[in-house]
Write a structure and sequence with these properties.
The complex is a heterodimer of chains A (about 425) and B (about 425). Chain A has 15 helices and 17 strands. Chain A is of the alpha+beta class and about 425 residues long. In chain B, the strands form 3 sheets. In chain B, strands 1-2-8-3-5-4 form a 6-stranded mixed β-sheet, with helices on both faces. Chain B has a 5-stranded mixed β-sheet with strand order 9-13-10-12-11, with helices on both faces. In chain B, strands 6-7 form a two-stranded antiparallel sheet. The radius of gyration of chain B is 23 Å and the shape is globular. Classes of the chains: A alpha+beta (about 425), B alpha+beta (about 425). At the A-B interface, helix 2, helix 4, helix 10 and helix 12 of A face helix 2, strand 5, helix 4, helix 9 and helix 11 of B.
């Protein structure tokens, strides 16, 4: 077991790669009641075209299957796992993103038992035709719930505008039609491909003794047999650099319009430290441009074009990336054109000054300290970073090292008119 | 050992609550102001914190003010307006890095407290009036905030249920106020209200973090002093004549929203309050609860179905999203679960399981500064002094008989259904 110390943060973390390939991280958090653990596979909604181990042919699976599988893992022959967790005083949950499926629990007692329950339920799939059918009703309601949610429709509408071929544009839960094609055999095939320990990461954070926890995990894994699995072969079709659609307007039953401007990153290929630096540079740039202390924010808020739902964000994973800016507005077209102008000006360097950079760095460092108060943040983000060969605890040193040139370069590289797109939600009765 | 130790001191016009803990890498400062919820003041009160947080005398524009927050290592300031029973509570929170984790050892806590005081007592105002432009900007945003409730159908249906269920009670008021009141508010009458609120509200300051208590007290004393007051109490309408009713709205939605309101007739601080907590947990609070198992797992009717308590108002709300044609079936299943609770049709194991999860949830809440403040503030609202240890003990001692007794007190009041335009055809 390796011990990693973060002096400035006064934290320690323990790491070991087990024989079966599983990465295990333990971060003891003194003074906390809670222990939080996530067991995550590098498998999300974009992994829909792949080569199952030992097979000669690539398969393409229905939209929403990774999320469906997440739901189904909770059900076992003798009932569902929620029951067992709550008997042990824990609350359990799971989520599926574009690139990951995470299972988790948090509890303030019976940590060892809960940890074993977590590992075992994820590693013991049980799917039957009957339970698969039953789940279609529940997930159908989940999909319908999102259909009525204007913010979700806006977010996905924007991503769909950007991508022509890449599966990031597929709604994570799929559609009622696509999930109707899912069978138990497909679930097993996906499971066998993506739930091998060598494709997974276990993170435990809380008031724990690292030696005991690592011992328990090793013993548990030692009892299970896994054949070595070669690297997973996934297929992603070629994606153009420019956006697929420039604009989409969704009419919904709302009173206030919403507008997001997106920028598609041109085929991002970075990983590791390079990706971390790029991601932080873009985030700092967006903060300088659109943070509450910025000239742009003052202008937009002052003229009534935005309200306190205004936000901005940059997402990047291997193979895709996008920035988005916007929120509720009474004038979606005016807001869109203002934001585009502001972004184009930033490409020329407007607003990107040394003073703004230093202030924003301080702001980001403070935000990081706030974030590491949260065991959830540490576990979830650390996993995401690790899957991209980045290190969460490098955030502060890399932030400190950013120069104005880095920020300008990032702006110049990201911002391009042909990669802009707009998505709006407008009230049905308006034109 | 106590789970947390809160020290409460009487200050001039307010109470200072300090929780010293080494858990966090930040310090949290929360200022709370509580007054009865009234239709006369609700909208002004909803606007006030947003006006105060947008600028001050020393930082006369939002960008100057926000730049200073960034300089303080991104001190995070946010305001919030909430309902606690029939009170409207304003919260101002500032979370600021503890300099012990920074290479630059600037004493940030004091600066954070100074800034909090600055926005509370030194607003951008002249001649008994706020800055006009600021007020107008925030009125516009408030209008959008009120409208936004309509656009989120989950929040909207919950709001509609409360509106129907609590007609003629202050609780029916929306916490952000009424759009129709906004035009009448101006920089003068809002300033007048500001004076009134700081003269009459019940005021509390919470400081959570690795702090020196004596130092915090002396800073607070220096920065914040108000006239003594006797906070106004709202006579909670405890006995309400309950007549079951069903209300349906039609909207252009794909999923129906079913919200059911019950009167629990039990309030925070009552002796059977702990039993109510356990009751709610077995009934619908968690993923092992009756509602989840029967509505979702057995019948695949919903993705989400849960119940939650409004402890200071004595209500329990069930919420779920279902297909339009499943309305009758879902209501029937939910009613059956309530009848099962009242008939004592639940096992010792369900009780133990629920207690374990509630205890877990409570202890987890104490792992965030914000959670701590929310839990401690229950005592302020209810005028009680229940420590967390008392709370946990009281809850764990609850017996099956007590849970059944509580279940029998619970009365269904209103079934609300937000259904589609095409439904019932």
């Amino acid at each position: 077991m390796e011990k990693i110390t973060f002096e400035q943060l006064q934290e320690e973390m323990y790491y070991e790669k087990l024989n079966n390939g599983l990465d295990v991280y333990i971060l003891p958090k003194k003074g906390f009641n809670k222990t939080y653990a996530t067991f995550t596979t590098k498998y999300g909604s974009i992994d829909n075209h792949f080569l199952p181990p030992g097979k000669g042919d690539y398969v393409k699976v229905p939209d929403g299957i990774a999320h469906f599988l997440e739901h189904k893992l909770f059900e076992k022959e003798d009932g569902d796992v929620f029951q067992q967790f709550s008997k042990q005083g824990a609350s359990a949950n799971a989520f599926t993103s574009f690139t990951r499926t995470a299972y988790l629990f948090s509890s303030t007692s019976n940590v060892e038992k809960n940890l074993e329950t977590l590992i075992d339920f994820v590693q013991e799939p049980y799917f039957t035709e009957k339970t698969v059918e039953k789940e279609k009703g529940i997930i159908g309601q989940e999909i319908t719930m999102y259909d009525d949610n204007p913010d979700w429709r806006l977010y996905f509408g924007l991503i769909q505008n950007m991508y022509k071929n890449h599966p990031v544009s597929i709604d994570i839960a799929g559609t009622i039609d696509s999930i109707s094609h899912i069978t138990k055999d497909m679930l097993y095939e996906c499971y066998e491909t993506f739930y091998h320990p060598s494709n997974m990461l276990l993170f435990v954070v809380g008031q724990v003794n690292p030696d005991e926890i690592m011992g328990l995990i090793k013993e548990n894994q030692g009892k299970k047999e896994y054949k070595n699995q070669p690297e997973i072969k996934r297929v992603f079709d070629e994606e153009q650099a420019e956006v697929a659609e420039k604009k989409q307007v969704l009419k919904m039953n709302v009173q206030t319009s919403k507008c997001l401007v997106g920028i598609k990153a041109a085929n991002p290929t970075e990983s590791g430290k390079e990706m971390l630096k790029k991601e932080l540079s873009i985030n700092v740039m967006l903060d300088i441009l659109f943070g509450k202390s910025s000239e742009n924010y003052t202008e937009l808020y002052g003229s009534g074009l935005i309200d306190d739902t205004f936000s901005y964000d940059y997402t990047e994973e291997q193979g895709f990336g996008f920035a988005m800016v916007g929120g509720d507005t009474n004038e979606p077209d005016v807001l869109a054109s203002k934001l585009e102008t502001m972004l184009m000006e930033a490409k020329e360097g407007r607003g990107l000054t040394g003073d703004n950079l230093e202030r924003t760095k301080k702001k980001k460092i403070g935000a990081f300290l706030r974030a590491v108060n949260s065991p959830e943040y540490i576990a979830n983000q650390f996993t995401r970073y690790a899957f991209n060969d980045m290190d969460l605890f490098e955030v502060v040193p890399v932030l400190e090292s950013l120069t104005l040139d880095d920020i300008k370069q990032a702006a110049n590289k990201l911002i391009a008119e042909e990669r802009f797109t707009v998505c709006q939600v407008v009230p049905k009765d308006k034109k | 050992m106590a789970v947390i130790s809160e020290s409460i001191r009487d200050m001039k016009g307010y109470k200072l609550h300090i929780v010293k803990t080494e858990k966090f890498k930040t310090n949290t400062i929360v200022w709370k102001m509580k007054a009865p919820l009234t239709s006369e003041d609700v909208t002004k009160r909803a606007l006030l914190p947003y006006v105060l947080q947008s600028s001050s005398k020393a930082y006369p524009s939002t960008s100057k003010f926000r730049s200073y927050l960034d300089e303080l290592y991104g001190a995070n300031l946010y305001v919030d307006v909430s309902k606690k029973g029939e009170y409207q509570v304003l919260s101002f929170s500032l979370e600021i890095a503890n300099e012990k984790f920074l290479s630059d050892r600037d004493p940030l806590l004091k600066k954070g407290m100074q800034l909090m005081a600055e926005i509370l007592v030194n607003p951008l105002a002249d001649n008994e009036a706020f800055d006009r432009e600021t007020v107008e900007k925030e009125k516009r945003t408030l209008k959008q905030r009120i409208q936004a409730v309509y656009d989120d159908k989950m929040r909207y249906s919950n709001f509609r249920l409360v509106q129907e269920m609590c007609k003629n009670e202050p609780y029916a008021l929306h916490v952000n106020g009424e759009i129709d009141d906004i035009p009448q508010i101006d920089e003068k009458n809002l300033y007048e209200y500001y004076k009134k609120a700081f003269a009459e509200d019940e005021l509390d300051l919470f400081i959570i973090g690795d702090v020196d208590e004596t130092e915090v007290q002396s800073i607070a004393q220096e920065l914040l002093q108000f006239d003594e007051r006797t906070p106004k109490l709202n006579e909670a309408s405890k006995s309400v004549h309950v007549e079951e009713k069903t209300v349906k709205d039609k909207e252009d939605v794909k999923q129906g929203k079913l919200n059911i309101g019950y009167r629990t007739n039990v309030f925070y601080g009552d002796k059977d309050y702990y039993a109510l907590q356990v009751f709610n947990g077995i009934f619908g609070g968690f993923s092992h609860s009756k509602l989840f198992l029967n509505v979702r797992e057995k019948n695949s009717l919903a993705y989400y179905v849960a119940s939650r308590l409004e402890s200071h108002k004595g209500l329990m709300m069930v919420m779920s999203g279902i297909e339009f044609e499943n309305f009758e079936l879902a209501v029937k299943i939910i009613r059956e679960q309530m009848e099962a609770m009242q008939a004592g049709d639940f096992t010792d194991q369900e009780i133990e399981q629920t207690k374990a999860v509630i205890e877990n949830q409570m202890l987890e809440t104490m792992d965030t500064a914000r959670g701590m403040v929310e839990v401690l503030y229950h005592n302020v609202v209810s005028g009680q002094n229940v420590s967390l240890d008392d709370w946990l003990q009281g809850m764990s001692k609850t017996t099956k008989e007590e849970i059944v007794d509580v279940a029998k007190k619970v009365q269904l009041d209103t079934v609300y259904f937000l259904t589609g335009l095409e439904a019932d055809k």
